[in-house]
């Protein structure tokens, strides 16, 4: 499949075209992020977000531009947002006040109320996950409840790793839609 044809098919929601584009450009986007971030997990997360955003906005892609360049631009913007978020979190953690500042030490152990709320939220989440198709339920279970890596999930499901990533991405998106409808 040619890239131009795949883009046109992807604009009409063709699953094979999305998979082709993901497989074709995954290494480029991931390599770009890994070179800048030097952290495999963060690079992978940003790469997944890049493809998610690109596939959501595929209708806005103009054919006169290079698709790889478009993806890298999306990836750069997500990286910039990520860096800004980290800087914001760091600046909130440090105080520039004088030495007379009183620091309150937080007890990070959950209170009984927090435990009940967490259990209720988990129960709601599990009910929402059960509304997904079984193959989406399985991939969410393997990734987030059994905490398997993409490679381990790929082996267990006997599917290519990129398919696992796309399936997980779609599962998260569908789950988010279910949660937001409430």
UniProtKB/TrEMBL annotation:
It holds the Pfam family Sigma70_r4_2. Signal peptide: none annotated. Residues 27-88 form the RNA polymerase sigma-70 region domain. SUPFAM superfamilies: Sigma2 domain of RNA polymerase sigma factors, Sigma3 and sigma4 domains of RNA polymerase sigma factors. The keyword Manganese does not apply. The keyword Transcription regulation applies. Keywords: Sigma factor, Transcription, Transcription regulation. InterPro entries: RNA_pol_sigma-70-like, RNA_pol_sigma-70_dom, RNA_pol_sigma70_r2, RNA_pol_sigma70_r4_t2, RNA_pol_sigma_r2, RNA_pol_sigma_r3/r4-like, WH-like_DNA-bd_sf. Residues 126-175 form the RNA polymerase sigma factor 70 region 4 type domain. NCBIfam families: sigma70-ECF. Belongs to the sigma-70 factor family. ECF subfamily. This is RNA polymerase sigma factor. It comes from Gilvirhabdus luticola.
């Amino acid at each position: 499949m040619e890239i131009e044809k795949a883009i046109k098919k992807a604009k009409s929601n063709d699953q094979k075209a999305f998979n082709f584009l993901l497989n074709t450009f995954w290494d480029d986007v991931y390599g770009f992020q890994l070179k800048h971030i030097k952290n495999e997990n963060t690079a992978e997360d940003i790469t997944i977000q890049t493809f998610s955003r690109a596939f959501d906005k595929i209708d806005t892609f103009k054919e006169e531009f290079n698709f790889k360049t478009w993806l890298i631009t999306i990836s750069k913007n997500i990286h910039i947002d990520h860096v800004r978020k980290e800087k914001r979190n760091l600046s909130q953690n440090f105080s520039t006040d004088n030495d007379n500042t009183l620091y309150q030490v937080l007890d990070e152990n959950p209170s009984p109320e927090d435990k009940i709320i967490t259990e209720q939220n988990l129960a709601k989440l599990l009910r929402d996950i059960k509304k997904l198709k079984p193959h989406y339920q399985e991939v969410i279970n393997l990734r987030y409840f059994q905490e398997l890596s993409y490679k381990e999930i790929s082996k267990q499901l006997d599917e290519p790793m990129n398919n696992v990533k796309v399936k997980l991405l779609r599962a998260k998106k569908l789950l988010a839609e279910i949660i937001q409808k409430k």
